[in-house]
Amino acid sequence: MRKIALHWQIIIGMVAGLLIGALFLLFPWGKDFVVDWIKPFGTIFINSLKLIAIPLIIASLVKGVSDLNDIRQLSKMGSRTIGMYIVTTIIAISLGLLLVNVVKPGRFIEENTRLEMMESFAGEADSRIASANETKERGPLDALVDIIPDNIVAAASSNGNMLQIIFFVVFFGIGIILIEPSKSKPVKDFFDGLNEVILKMIDIIMLFAPFGVFALLATLMVEAPSSDVFIALGAYALTVVVGLAFLLFAFYPTVVKIFTGLSYKTFLDGIAPAQLLAFSTSSSAATLPVTMERVEEHLGVEKDVVAFVCPVGATINMDGTSLYQGIAAVFIAQVFGNDLTLSDQLVIVLTATLASIGTAAVPGAGILMLVIVLESVGVNPAGIALIFAVDRPLDMIRTAVNVTSDATVALLVGKSLGKIKDPNVKNWDDHYKPQD
Question: Which residues form a coiled coil (predicted)?
Fold first, then answer.
């Protein structure tokens, strides 16, 4: 009997979770039961992925950097990676601004709905604004200072310190390159072995992925806001979804097809489990181990490229978040009656691009950065209260976009460096079957 492919297993788990969640809503005790007895399994699944995120980055990035012949190769890879991430981010924000100006979803929100939602979410909005103000009060070079940790052990204790960890690991890898091969070999062998162990741990965790996403989607169903809120914000949510769907199913596959020759089916089949996991967890960091495994094993990008491009992307590349920030900022401005000029929207492009670099790869972090984007164009940041009700499902979709963008850039960088398998080999599709 042929084994069901991983992405289909995850889809079955997602659908089952939604159905079970809807079923339990029919009972007065249903929500409490799901929260108490089903939700913890989703949390355990996410925690297990986060558990190996930092060890994976350390092992794979040390291996990837140390396998390079000289510093010039690292410089070439780094410049291309950062450049491509910035380009895709600008394209995503511009697409979002185009859509929101055409649809104008803000005109569908009635005054009484706006006031009711502002009052309901006032406390949460205030806490996000306070957090954003703390960020704004930092010095212009504080972000640069934060990249260099004063204690790598302390930095490695939190997934929120990805940039610090990446800096240390790249620095460590450079040190390995610069010493004699005979002395570096034991260190490289250790990290090679560690990397293989971590990849096997990912395989084990992914056996439980369908059950994890089942628990996450069942919980989302019982904790979702009431339907009238979704109707009031339908135009806004639809605008975001259309933009994200265009990136997912048109822009990225087309770019990959043009520059690497991979077919739409090959690309989407290869990255599908990572997309579905990103959708379920709303966290690029939690999905990173699976993203790296899919890009290397199923899309043919060599390990040293994957080890560098994907962790950096999970930290600074947030195309889905950037598109959403552009749409949300203009939407809130429309609701408040603020007419944003072309120069205002160019400021949104710049601010959202910079904000995406500082957005942590964790659920809901984009909301905090949206406050900074709003204030950059003089819009009352309290307006973020308007979008809280539908932010969770949209966060799930934009995380899937972020992960797909990381995979796309990894393919482009790999192709530009000659580090990608030939997509035209006859047994390419057979390459997937053992892993699925």
Answer: none
